[in-house]
Amino acid sequence: QVQLVESGGGLVQAGGSLRLSCAASGRMFSRYVMGWFRQAPGKEREFVAAISWSGLSTYYTDSVKGRFTISRDNAKNTVYLQMNSLKPEDTADYYCAANARGGLSNDVYTSHYDYDYWGQGTQVTVSS
Questions:
Q1: Cβ-based neighbours of 99, under 8 Å, separated by 6 or more
Q2: C-alpha distances in angstroms, 20 versus 30, 44, 62, 89, 101?
Q3: How many CA atoms lie within 13 A of 63 on its CB side?
Q4: pLDDT for residue 102 is more than 80
Q5: Does residue 120 sit in helix, strand or coil?
Q6: pLDDT of 3-41, one tens digit each?
Q7: For a FRET experiment, which of 28, 40, 71, 126 has its CA 20 to 30 Å from that of 97?
Q8: What whole-number distance in Å separates Cα of residue 50 and Cα of residue 73?
Q9: Half-sphere exposure of 59 toward its Cβ, with a 13 Å CA cutoff?
């Protein structure tokens, strides 16, 4: 069982920045593909960003490209989401997720069906 705990959410003005962190339990974190998703009130959960086990591959949804950066520190079992130039439409609960199926490819995944474990979420509110 893998436990994921997000932190770093909060209230920020438009144009501001936040860094989300997701700490994972377990000794196999370095083999997990990690992703960030978000869910705004009344909307479906959507993919935000993903990173391969090695960190060599990343992928972003179009609306955050150039503003958000996903990274990981395998020594700390932690994945990060640096969010810059925040917009009110970024307001949502943000969830990190882990694909713990192993493998050595640098694939990343954008579908929530490809993730096995989820954190409890952290709220991000961007005021205009």
A1: 32, 33, 34, 35, 109, 114, 115, 116
A2: 19, 20, 19, 17, 24
A3: 11
A4: no
A5: coil
A6: 999 999 999 999 999 999 999 998 899 999 999 999 999
A7: 126
A8: 14
A9: 14
Q: For residue 24, which of 15, 32, 16 has the smallest C-alpha distance? A: 32
Whose tokens are 């501001």? That residue is 16
Q: Are the C-beta atoms of 92 and 2 separated by less than 8 Å?
A: no
pLDDT of residue 103: 66
Instruction: Calculate mean pLDDT across residues 56-79.
Output: 97
Amino acid at 90: D
Nearest partner of 22 among 74, 93, 80, judged by Cα: 80
Give CA–CA dist 113/95, Å, rounded.
14
Residue 128, token pair as written in the block: 């205009």
